[in-house]
Amino acid sequence: MPKYLIAVLLSFTAVAFAQKSSEYRLLATTRTSTMEKEINAIARDGYRLVGTMGGDTHEGEIIVTMRKLAKGDDEDRFQYKLLATSRTGTMERELQEAADQGYEYAARWRATK
């Protein structure tokens, strides 16, 4: 029976924003802790999440696409939290805890291993 990793990416935002630039970064890793650190480091440089995928690569990588905001936009508004588990009960609890901290749902992917 195949095992599935269910991952949810949450974002904490102060206000809505408009993407005005076409500068992109692509992140790929198999470790959720590494991905969360990399996403937040790039977010501090003014990039915002635009898409995710995962599990379909040869290495089973998590892949995240981020897009740079135009200069002058508030670059410190976003902080991301990455949740990953194979148990729905655990995901529900962690998702609720993150929501209680002010995070909002941003993206999800389903990775097979």
Could you describe the 3D structure shown?
With 113 residues, this protein is an alpha+beta fold. The chain has one domain. The protein is 23% helix and 41% strand. It contains 2 helices and 6 strands. The protein has helices at 32-44, 88-100, and strands at residues 4-12, 24-29, 47-54, 62-68, 79-85, 104-112. It has a 3-stranded antiparallel β-sheet, sandwiched between helices. Strands 2-4-3 form a 3-stranded antiparallel β-sheet, covered by helices on one side. The longest helix has 13 residues, at 32-44. The radius of gyration is 14 Å and the shape is flat. The N and C termini lie close together (11 Å). Residues 1-5 and 14-21 have low confidence and may be disordered.
Summarize the structure.
With about 110 residues, this protein is of the alpha+beta class. About 25% of the residues lie in helices and about 40% in strands.
Strand order of the biggest β-sheet = 5-1-6
Rough shape?
flat
Main sheet, how many strands, which sense, barrel?
A: 3 strands, antiparallel
The proportion of strand residues reads 35-45%
Uncertain parts:
1-5, 14-21
Distance between the termini: 11 Å
Helix content: 10-25%
Q: What number of structural domains do the residues give? A: 1
Whole-number average pLDDT?
Answer: 76
Instruction: Indicate the structural class.
Output: alpha+beta
Topology as a string of helices (H) and strands (E): EEHEEEHE
Tell how many strands the DSSP assignment holds.
Answer: 6
Count of DSSP H/I helices = 2
Please state the CA-atom Rg, rounded to the nearest Å: 14 Å
